Amino acid sequence: MKVVGSEDGGREWNHEALRGRLEDISGRGKEEREILLVEDDEGHAELIRRIFEERADENGIKWKIKWVRSISEALEYLESGRPSLILADYLLPDGKGLDLTRGAKRPDEMPAPLIIMTAYGSERIAVRSLKSGALDYVVKRLEDLENLPWTAKRALREWENILNRKRAEEELRRKNKELEAFTKELEELVYVISHDLKSPLFSIKSLSQFILEDYSGKLDENALKYLQLIEENAENMWYLIDMLLEVAKVGYLDVKYEEVCVKELVEEIKSSIKGLIISKNAEVKAVCDARLKTSKFFLKTILTNLIVNGIIYNDKERVIVEVRCEEHPEEYLFSVRDNGNGIPAERIPEIFELAHQFRKRTREEEERWRAKFEYVGSGAGLPQCKKMVERLGGKIWVESTVGEGSTFYFTLPKVK
Prior knowledge:
By secondary structure, the chain is α/β, with parallel strands linked by helices.
């Protein structure tokens, strides 16, 4: 039908075209989302379709309904179709709506968010639906069905959050793998460089000593001083490389698991550092009968470092170091307690760092320790402990009071 408008200069308007134009304008900016509706009752399917049509303006989404009557039809459609949402009845002629999850345990394992509908409200069905990968659960009451567009929009929003979180987790896993690979390469590089540096360094040390021995009478005071500095710095560099190698090689050691008795292991350690124990009038005891499956070499190295530190850094007349091990459901908790000098609070965060050991120890300090005690480690004991504990899947920390002593704790997971 055509109508002539007298106020617009006689322009003619086509009502049908105008209606189509208005519908096109009103539809602009709306998201179009497809719903796969799995419902065997035609009356319910038509009601749901009309509700989504009527509520389109309220949600700002243009819903497109793809209706199928059975699980088999739905699965066939999902082979090629990618709906934004699946709305499925709980009971269908050839199965249950949950069959669409295909064994999924979480919503993000589904091809699209799934909302289950049922004619009977049941907490058991609701819980089962959510545990089986469904994102939501709706009872087929009129008031609940009228809210389906809002429920669907909320499900899409939640689904997007789930996908974003999954993408972030996958990216984090990828970055972690890259970091692990980079760390391994870096450890290999450090190990190779440190090892190879020893050869030219040995030559520098030897040649310096030869010159000092053979030509000391022919050199002036400054030349002798410079040669001595060269030798001292070469010695210090040799010591630092030893420290670096001690920590770097942890990444290359094989972890061989075997049953270990903690008390027997502590006795072996005491035997190996007997001279140090006697010189410091120390008592080392294991208050523990635990047996666990772990790397004996790693555990022995960790306990040796901690026990030796507890003896060396101790000015008490009677030195006491006590080793304990508690069994917990998922792990073993070790503690090595001493009555030594303790560690200032401001230094605790850095004691497990290799860089701190480089700064702290000098060749001169090492020589003083060697003159005083039979046993002196590489100086990288605590960083080495940390790396070994972490390699076994545990963590290490310390509690300390200056003047009273320290307790080092570390965990080791149970190995089946």
